[in-house]
Give the backbone structure.
Amino acid sequence: MRQNFICAGHKSAGGGLGGKFPYYFSEKIKTKFEILAMSKTAVIEAPSGYGKTTAMREYLKDRQAHGEAVRCFTSVDEAPPAMYARLCREIGKIDEPAGKRLEEIKFPDAFTMGEVCDILREIGCEQSTWLVLDDSHYLLEALPEPVLTALLCHAGKNLNVVFITRRLKNKMLTAILGYGILHLRAEYLRWDAQDIRKYFKQAGADISSEAAAEVYRRTEGWIIAVYLQLCSWHETGEFSQAAVCQLMENLIWNKLSTEQQNMFMIASPFKGFTAAQLCVLLGREMLPEYAKEALTIPFIGYSSGQNRYEPHNVLSELFASKRREMGEGFDRRCLKSAGDLCRDERNIAGAMDFYAQIKDYKSLLSLNLDRHANTEFEDGAFLGIALEIVRECPREIRLDYPLSMLHIAWALRLMDDEDQAFKALMEELDGILPKAGSLRAEWLLLSCYLHFPVLEEMLKIVREAAVMFEGTYSRVILPAAPWAFYEYVQLTAFHVQPGKADLEAELLEEFLNIYSALTGGHGSGAGALFRAELALCRGETARAEVLAYKAIFQAESKNQKVIRIGAAKTLGAVALLKADTNGWKHALVTLESIARIEARSIAIKMASEAARGFLLAELKDFGRVADWLKNAQFLQQRMPPSIRKNGFATYVLCLINQGDYAQVIGLEQAVLSESFTVFAEILHHMSLAVGFLAIGDNFQAADCLRKAARLAMPDGLLHYFSGFAPLLRELTDELVATEYPEFLSKFDGHKNQYAAGWKALHGSIAASSLPAALTEREREIAQLAADGLRNQEIAEMLFVSENTVRAHLRTIYQKLNIDRRAKLAKMLD
């Protein structure tokens, strides 16, 4: 070191400011901490550099002095099960039986969620204890929502839990506010000019009010910037005119030795690093003394639990800019070393990123890409790399890594909207791969997707591929890949020719018998789901239910999330037909569970929400439909096409059941140029028919309905005709009676079953949404009135007088704070 540092801001054990200068508590934070002591749970939320961790640490020093225990847990960006295991061990230090049981259960799933939540709510300890969850933004992302809720709302004896995080997402913020949890935001940690003056005086610098106001103007009360101004004042007697980054350079960078500067530049590709990683980057078996000394400087955070050093963001950016200033050769060597380190640690994503930055395609293609090639939509970084390799990597390099290029091809196909790039790469690989052997078998298996979704052609290819695999499994297509590119309605995916649905079902099952065996279970359950959907649409409710459960069992055995979503949606539709409220609610819970457990998978979460939204919109329960499905803006966002189309179907159903028919027609006509499979086109024409009839264009409505029937009736697909019958009035009945009389009896039965089920479930949902203050009789009358019945009709139905109905309605209006029948109908719609 050239000079000693003034260590008022050294971040340690998770972050904050402290050291030579005494810590300063503003009056605002003192007041809040007095409330915190009386709170079971608190959340401290502020960006980096606000001193939130240090404030908590300094406050707890006094609590520890009075015999209270403090346990600290620092979250890091790691796999959720690993983070959860560490958290369980920390909880075990507070409540040993609870921690032990949580560790035995492991990361919660749908079956163990309840027990985990019960344990977390009741954590207890004999001694007054604080559990501080630092950098908990990682924890909030990793844990399922019910687990977080249980921890937030715990009732543990003698336990205070404090979450320290950078920024809360809106959903979590809403939950915290809803539960009444103490929430300390950045403004409570930010200093005003008076605080700044007191802080300087406490550190031995008596500045004027004007000077404190100037510091506030420069820093806006950001504690780390105020600290830097204090350092500058102590060193020069003046406040720095440079930006915070320049202050960092003056106060940190320029005081480092050349060796130390070089060390930080070499490590700068990483946001944080361990001592062992730094040794590798420096080519040393042990850290040299200059490195140990450099790691004690201010703004280098250290987590003892992870043995990890993390420079503050401003300092990290400074190190990276200095690295780039050294020239292209030095920058490239640093990034190459970073990539090599990630590769050796099996951090393939990190290695890919660093190699891609320097266009080191040889190193990139030498990586094992199977997991990333089978990854889901949110791994946009890999898709970008895959496209870059296809477009820019020299052909001679691609020739040296044929297996990796097959992984690249599969990744392109999984994105669906990169179909042309997939076809071009497959054509190139066809010309360079040997005509026999494992690589040709992989190519042949992949090539079946050149014909998706034509099952007859796909089946021919997998039969040939199976012979070439000679009893081995694919190394390219893995079960983790999203089946059918996130299309959870198998009729939408594979029903491509009217009148051939039964044949397609047979072909799909035969295809899957071979294909799933080659891929370790990819697509398991899709055949049963196709038949379940087919049975549902034909009015064969009992058969549909059995097949949907079969699909779920097969899908769960191979973790086929897309199939599970489709099967749950089908069971929801079955429950409606059976007027089974509990079964319908269970389908919703299943979809909610998938979305919650797979929260890190954006696409699976969206697919679950789209399926759930369709079931809710069908029963006019719009309030619980995911927000993104209520606004057409999502149609312009990047997402897998299947999710966009299913989201579109949910959005249109919302519009139909809300009476916005003009927008329905406009949207459906806008997508006429898109390619539809048969099943999707049926729903498209049905939606248009409803819209046209509602605006009085009976001719167009009848024409659209006839188009839908020409596609549906050859396979006896009656379900949507039954569902839309109330909106299409006599049109559907006339069409079936005159043009498809062979289906009339079955259609009438299915239509009546649908109507009865819809009324029962809608009534149940509406009743459950009424305030608990209403009596059972009041709920009954409220629902009948909302359904449009007059007072006399209600009186006759319930065997009471009309005056009694009027009296009940007056009470209902008073309890619901409304003044007319129309508002009651709107409340229950």
